[in-house]
Structures are given as structure tokens and as C-alpha cells.
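Something for you to look into today, if you have time. Just paste the record in under my message, thanks.
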Amino acid sequence: MHRLLTTTIAATALCTTLAACTVAEPRPGVYVPAGVVYVAPDYDVPGPGYYWDYNVGIGWGWWHPRHGWHRR
């Protein structure tokens, strides 16, 4: 019984954490790969030249052609 309760609490915490993502329809011009869920940016563009993009290892984030991925 204790193990079931612990598993249920852990599963609930995981679902709550994942539900905190902002999921929205992508703006026109944003490419979303097959099988990937679009997640809208949760903060403003860090500077000129950055655009919202997807990376397999990082996920969604701001990317600049010269500076690379923005780390908050």
C-alpha cells in the first residue's frame, strides 16, 4: 500500500510539472518537426536576430545564427 501511494504521488508530481508548459499553436513561419509538440516562448526575445526554434537535445528555445542558443 505504501509503495502504491508513493508511486501515485510521484506520477501526480510529474504530470503537474509537465502541465506547466505553455502549449499553443505555432505562429506562421515556425517549423515544427513531426512528432514534436510546439511550446510557446515564456519570455521575450533576448535580442535582435534571435528566433524561436527547436533542437533535439535542447528543446524549444531562442537561437541566433552567430551566437547560438540563448541560455537564461
In short: The mean pLDDT is 77. Strands lie at 51-55, 59-64, 68-69. Residues 25 and 56 are 19 Å apart (CA to CA).
